[in-house]
Design a protein that fits this description.
- With 122 residues, this protein is mainly alpha-helical.
- It has one domain (2-120).
- Helix content is 72%, strand content 0%.
- The protein contains four helices and no strands.
- The longest helix is centred in the middle third of the chain and has 26 residues, at 38-63.
- It is flat, with a radius of gyration of 17 Å.
- It starts with a helix and ends with a helix.
- Pfam families: DMT_6.
- This is Membrane protein.
- The chain crosses the membrane at residues 36-55, 76-96, 102-120.
- It comes from Anditalea andensis.
- Keywords: Membrane, Transmembrane, Transmembrane helix.
Length: 122
């Protein structure tokens, strides 16, 4: 059960972080944000990223072996990176339809999934 909680919290945290890092690139399409300066954009993104921590920190504490979780530190990190890529892919396909996902991207992501396999292999 701790594995599932950890993964769900990591998905939520990465969703907020993806919006904080890349969501502002769509602000030009929104009337009320189109004239904001860089400092305003940074502050809005920082505010969004704050919510990422509300999910990331508990995910790491619940999932880490030293706190009774199922994952080592390396396993947590690799799991988080793959979740980040999956969330990013979905975000890109939904909000940045002009971006294309090419074969070399998929191959690279495939290698990252292989990395997860090898990290978790006992």
């Amino acid at each position: 059960m701790k594995s599932l909680y950890t993964i769900l919290l990591l998905i939520l945290s990465n969703t907020f972080m993806t919006f904080a890092w890349y969501g502002h690139l769509k602000f030009k399409d929104l009337k009320w944000f189109e004239n904001l300066g860089l400092i305003s954009i940074v502050m809005i993104s920082w505010g969004i990223a704050l919510f990422e921590y509300f999910f990331q920190v508990p995910a790491n504490r619940i999932g880490f072996k030293d706190y009774g979780g199922p994952f080592s530190l390396v396993e947590l990190k690799v799991l988080q990176e793959v979740i980040t890529l999956l969330v990013f892919m979905i975000f890109t396909l939904v909000f940045f339809k002009q971006e294309t996902i090419r074969a070399n991207h998929l191959i690279g992501f495939g290698f990252l999934v292989l990395a997860v396999y090898f990290i978790f292999k006992k």
